[in-house]
Amino acid sequence: MKRIMKMDAALVVLLCAAPALTRAAAPPGRYTASAGTVTDTKTKLVWQEPFAPSTMTWAAAKSYCAGLGATLGGSGWRLPTIKELQTLVDVSVSAGPAIDPKYFPNTGRSAFWSSTPSTADTSVAWMLAFSEEGELQAGMQTAIQVRCVR
Q: Rounded distance, CA 96 to CA 7, Å?
């Protein structure tokens, strides 16, 4: 099923309707937290725990992530791919954000940029909403939440 929505004057197309998602935590041992980061023990990805303090365009999000080492330490911070963002989705959730609230507090139902551009339109990129909307596309000039990974 496809739905088309408008978001900040950018065309957004819902390509995957997530199933009705109850609030649950990840399996024990899935995540470990330390100094503003969360490590996923399954994927070995290290995530920024407090997401960016403001929304930003796709280009600004990429720059923000590239410079995050000065704040969180380490190198290789970047905007995650859509597949990497999908690894954070807790599909057992039916009410509230579909992400572990213990390790990713205050995420809400917000959408987050991915680094994955659309193959159909070079001015559009993928984003993921931790709500029923799931994966969406938005114009790269749209201001959206950012959570970086390395």
A: 21
- DSSP helix, strand, coil percent of the chain (3-state; round to 5): 10, 30, 60
Which pTM value belongs to this model? Answer: 0.81
State the Cα–Cα distance between residues 116 and 108, nearest whole angstrom: 22
- Start-end of H helices in 12-95: 58-66, 69-72, 82-86
The reported pLDDT for the residue numbered 85 is: 95
Question: Total structural domains in the chain?
Answer: 1
Q: Say if strands 37-40 and 134-139 run parallel, antiparallel, or are unpaired.
A: unpaired
Residue 33's H or E segment, with its range, is: strand 31-34
Whether 113 maps to a domain, the answer reads yes
Decide if 89 is inside a domain. Answer: yes
